[in-house]
Amino acid sequence: MKTERTIRAVIIDDEKGARELLRSMIELYCPTVQVLAEADGIENGRNLIKEVQPDLIFLDVEMPPGTGFDLIRSIDSLSAEIIFTTAHDHYAIHAIKMSALDYLLKPVNRQELVASVAKLQQRNSQIPREVLELLKMQLDSKKDQADRLVIASLQGFEIIKVSDIIYCEGDRNYTTFHLTERDALLSSKTLKEYEMLLDDSVFIRVHQKYLVNINYVKRYLKGRGGTLVMSNGKSIEVSQSKKQILIDALG
């Protein structure tokens, strides 16, 4: 999306009060966003998207008897960006994060709304269909941990296997993924975000800069904090404060 043009948006939510509140907040705090219309359910939402062809959809997750994800899957060609809204569903939030998509937790916070819109304006690519399919699969499985992760970069999206991550290396607001089967990938998210997202029984924060997959630890060299030698030959320093956590994880 380009920041200089108006973003044409629709709101799809089965709660009238939620739609009205979100519209008011958008009008107050997001001057580049124009809300064209609203819909109160999946069927009306599908028809609205086909008719209006919006740039952005604010989409409620929980819309009984279905979900916002059912709506997405029912549309053959979807070119709009999506910001999900949800009240409480643990599985939905985790799946959305694993898919590198944006969501707003109800009641919607002004700062988070503005940040989500700004993020979309800076992105140079649309959401691939494969990302949405991956999200739906994760939701259907109802698993706490997904086996796929979508990496959001400045160029777009990359889908990787979680099991292929050897270690993650943080550098301020960016994270580099070092992988078994491909070149390293740079993500525009912090290492802390991925530490919170990935399974903490497998991925251990051993240093301010490093989050390692213990399945790829080749050896541990003793020292003040110690040093890990990973399967790709990389030596990673272990912080003294993280030493015992690592030893416990390695068993």
UniProtKB/TrEMBL annotation:
PROSITE patterns: HTH_LYTTR (PS50930), RESPONSE_REGULATORY (PS50110). Residues 8-121 form the Response regulatory domain. The keyword Repeat does not apply. SUPFAM superfamilies: CheY-like. One of its GO terms (molecular function) is DNA binding. InterPro entries: CheY-like_superfamily, LytR-like, LytTR_DNA-bd_dom, Sig_transdc_resp-reg_receiver. This is DNA-binding response regulator. The modification 4-aspartylphosphate is found at residue 60.
